[in-house]
């Protein structure tokens, strides 16, 4: 096929213990999926229908560096377990949802909180606060074939050695199978899709020079320097 311009590179994630790469198609994110984080953001943690937003595949960063973005003075960290789909479809039954999961990773949903807050006040979309370059630092994928499907386990983030976020995957309001099933009611999911499954309480600002260390049981660590 002839192209009028050179096709962009395919965003991809490394796979732990392999030279192969996992191509990324879309990035879905669930909002306020841990009760204490919902409270700290001024919400009600009752099980109301979940809501989702997206980041761009090109927002992935895998080099351990997070460039502090422009137009913001209040950039926050949010540690999340990332779910990578190896197959997809529409109206996926919850009971079959995990059959579509290829693997899991440690990730960060970096957020220009001040710009997100302005968008909320004006009832505008959140992309300016959520979907910017390098806003999704991600670690290597760990195949579900090796570790199964984590439904519980410690999730923790430190900044310069001080604990900021700490919780357990079992505290999710909406489980991973529920997220997949509900998302597939609205979108046709496909191989290469990622789901960022929510963050526990303790989100807060970072500054240039900070070192973030994100850890999830069975998935390892992700170290990211703010530059």
Automatic annotation (TrEMBL):
It holds the Pfam family FAA_hydrolase. SUPFAM superfamilies: FAH. Gene3D superfamilies: Fumarylacetoacetase-like, C-terminal domain. One of its GO terms (molecular function) is hydrolase activity. Residues 27-227 form the Fumarylacetoacetase-like C-terminal domain. Keywords: Hydrolase, Metal-binding. The keyword Metal-binding applies. This is Fumarylacetoacetate hydrolase family protein. It comes from Paralimibaculum aggregatum.
